[in-house]
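SAMPLE LOG
Freezer: B-3
Tube label: C17
Construct: single chain, 493 aa
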Amino acid sequence: MNPVDRRSFLRSSAFAAAGAALSARTWAQSAGANGDIRVAVVGLNGRGRNHLQSLQRVKGVRVVALCDVDSAVLARAKKSLAEEGSEVRTYVDLRELLAQKDIDAVSIASPNHQHALQAVWACQAGKDVYVEKPVSHNVWEGRQLVHAAARHNRVVQCGTQIRSGEGLREAVAWVRSGQLGRVTAARGFCYKRRDSIGRADAPLQIPANINFDLWCGPAPLVPPRRLRLHYDWHWVHVTGNGDVGNQGIHQMDVARWFLGETGLPRTTLSVGGRLGYVDDGDTPNTQVVIHDYASAPLIFEVRGLPAKAGATAGGGRRGDTMDNFRGVGVGNVIDCEGGSVVSTNYFTATAYDKSGKVVREFKGVDRHMQNFIDVVRSRKTADLYGPIEDGHVSSALCHLGNISHVLGKAAQPDALRERIRGNAGLAEACGRMMEHLGTNAVDLKATPLALGALLQIAPGTERFTGEFAAAANPLLTRQYRAPFTVPDLSGKA
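STRUCTURE (predicted):
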């Protein structure tokens, strides 16, 4: 195979036009509407392994290629599939994979800062896309991915798999039909133990098996100052989005789904910090984000420290007991005038009346990857359980919370309480958060929480207005490192 001219990849209008012209009819002729769907998996740590397992369970799918910038990870995955009787091609550079005409779709499970760019590239190459959550690292590039899917007529499914479970789908429809009255607050929770990632004395020495230029992609080509390259990128803003963007997109997506809101909120405010230990992470491990929607507030909470003090100053213990809110550690509580719906896992929910009596139970299973393949075959994108527009909006909620936090300022406990006391939902959630930190021996006078900027979103836009607009609007995007630049697809036919 001739090597791809990497710098000309995005500039090739002929290449992009070829992707746009690949209609449902030509797709059916090339892949065969009744033939196997040929899929490549991109990013093979963590979620990528789950993608492989999910795809192998879907009838009529062949995994034909793998891609990872870590050649050791790539070799292990190839060997594992070979032992199961499947031979696949491997690529370190995604652009070389995307140039192959015998690949119909890609599933992307790379780090967050790569999601939007890689998915846009795939759309331009005429591939359908399953992209992990969040679909973007910032708000602007998420919108460009929505444009790319439409412009190139691609099926793009977001990895918000809770939406595929029949139980939650029924619960949403049931609540929105008024069975419990009006929703008064939609809450999401991520009470999940997050240990310190440690402190590095010097920048990380990148192993020879990792193509670090490709790993960085749009991000600065600078060796990170932390102990591990893989996974801990979640807890550094330049590549990750903290637990608001890691776990939180699932629960905020569900909360927004129950509310029936299709766009961004009127305002967003964060209160939080990285507390209980000092390490190389810079995203909050303790946080409350409140999105003010016209229908009801959407409140999301992060807690990475255990329910009781113990190992918060260092490594921690995975067995530590975590807090819960009305039985929920990771999940949702949807409060309504006549009761509530509580979900403690991805695919079941229970409805209660005001007295706490069970009214109805909802159960389902994960059909997300099957749904993606079904729509790749049918081309009926209205049937997608996690369409890219919804994936983008819910990802944007994560980014708004992080922007508020980044622009925030340290606030002493009494001053913080005074500033938020007029917002009942936020004050209640923050009060519980501060009690939680107290049980972990966190001195909020010595290491105060950050009171974020109150961000106002201009109606019908994805831009800020008001007091903090000048500082916040630049944070809707990033400085991209050529040639890993997300193209501006707004306004283009």
